[in-house]
Design goal:
By secondary structure, the chain is mainly β. The chain is built from four helices and 28 strands.
Length: 432
């Protein structure tokens, strides 16, 4: 089973190629490629903090590409105490949003790419922005894709070239945005449920979407598209009809969180149960049922966070117990691949697990909300390495790790970093 998880999920891996269509090719294209022969397994120890306050391994450099509240431009300079973008004739678009969170990159139809990123600001001041780059990596400017929403935390890129943005409030929805379509081309997706949304991931083989919920008694959800909603041969679903369900570990009671009494290192069978009142906020449903001395269906997960689909496996994090989980989509078996409480001393590096992504080699990159402000890598052999540490920004968190489409660059944010405490967006340049 260990080989199954890290080897791409057997049959599912052979079928999990992303749908090919003009729209998908022009927008998202293929998953990021590995840059030459470089492997994250080869990174060495971190060096001392550089001028930006970043500790990096040898051979990796970094720059600030956006500062919240400022207009990103073609040139950028920064210091650890007062990062700022330098005004230039190439600067265009709108100021970069505050409190950057989950993100992903998309290849631009005419060359270059864009980094799409959420803004985790409350009371209708959140939304989604896009940071554009030309084919050389020069910053062109920022655009606004979604406004008027609240606490847009994580989300997920789709195989058909759009971005899902989840609102982390009790009445939260998932919004779908076209990275190149402008602010008028976004829509809520109420069929995906109403709760404190974190991330979304798409399994195109089984026409299923997975979702995390950031609540202490939250659930792990999936939306199974009906045949009419996602017909065979169609590049994408309508997301209007299907079944919203919650994961239930077989043999564990409803509403119970998995604890140390379970051997979570071995694959466990799961069942899926339809949610009660799918259009009602799920936290309210749980409170109502508790008042009736009943438990809502589903296993309780302690603060669902980052989520990513890669070659037949869905990876997700839970911050309340510092665990990284892997669900093999074909067999529907679940196990923990990292647990801070039980990790070997050499691997007990990753705490405050939050946003995550997966490299083209199968490395799971996890950003810390807390811990040592590190971006850590769980390698296929389950050993852990530190790729980045940010110093001098206490009270912030790392968010939105995402590779550029060619795999050469890696974007990550310090959500409350910078002189004003509104956020900084970094680009790491990896070896060729």
């Amino acid at each position: 089973m260990r080989r199954l998880f890290w080897g791409g999920g057997g049959l599912a891996a052979s079928l999990s190629g992303w749908p090919t269509s003009a729209h998908a090719d022009a927008h998202a294209g293929a998953p990021p490629r590995s840059p030459g022969g470089f492997s994250l397994a080869d990174i060495g120890p971190l060096a001392a903090p550089d001028a930006l306050g970043l500790c990096l391994p040898a051979g990796i450099s970094a720059r600030v590409v956006a500062v919240s509240g400022e207009r990103p431009g073609a040139t950028a300079t920064a210091t650890a105490k007062a990062p700022t973008t330098t005004a230039s004739a190439a600067a265009s678009g709108v100021p970069w949003h505050a409190h950057p969170d989950g993100g992903a990159t998309f290849a631009a139809p005419g060359g270059g790419w864009t980094y799409v990123n959420n803004s985790e600001v409350l009371r209708g001041q959140g939304g989604v922005g896009a940071l554009d780059f030309d084919r050389t990596g020069r910053v062109l400017g920022a655009r606004r894709l979604l406004s008027g929403t609240s606490a847009n935390c994580a989300g997920g890129a789709t195989p058909w070239g759009t971005w899902f943005s989840g609102e982390e409030v009790e009445q939260g929805q998932v919004w779908e945005c076209d990275p190149f379509g402008g602010p008028d081309q976004r829509a809520p997706r109420p069929a995906l449920g109403t709760f404190k949304h974190e991330a979304v991931a798409v399994d195109p083989v089984h026409r299923t979407l997975y979702l995390t919920e950031d609540e202490g008694d939250g659930r792990f959800y999936r939306f199974v598209c009906s045949p009419r909603d996602w017909p065979a041969g169609s590049a994408r679903p309508a997301l209007r009809s299907g079944r919203l369900q919650v994961l239930q570990l077989r043999g564990l009671g409803a509403g119970v969180a998995p604890d140390a009494s379970l051997d979570l290192t071995r694959p466990l069978a799961v069942d899926w149960v339809d949610v009660i009142d799918p259009q009602v906020p799920q936290a309210a449903v749980r409170r109502r049922l508790a008042g009736e001395a009943r438990r809502a269906p589903g296993t309780a997960f302690l603060g669902g966070e980052g989520l990513w689909f890669f070659q037949g496996v869905v990876y997700f994090s839970t911050k309340g117990d510092n665990r990284i989980w892997a669900l093999e989509c074909a067999s529907q078996r679940l196990q923990v691949i990292y647990d801070f409480a039980t990790a070997q001393p050499a691997n007990r590096l990753l705490s405050g697990v939050d946003n995550l992504t997966v490299s083209s080699r199968g490395d799971v990159l996890v950003a810390e909300d807390g811990g040592n402000m590190e971006l850590c890598v769980i390698l296929p052999d389950r050993s852990v390495k530190v790729l980045l540490r940010v110093v001098g920004q206490d009270g912030s968190e790392l968010t939105g790790p995402a590779f550029s489409p060619d795999g050469r660059r890696l974007y990550v944010n310090s959500q409350r970093g910078g002189a004003q405490g509104l956020g900084l967006t970094y680009e790491l340049l990896l070896p060729a």
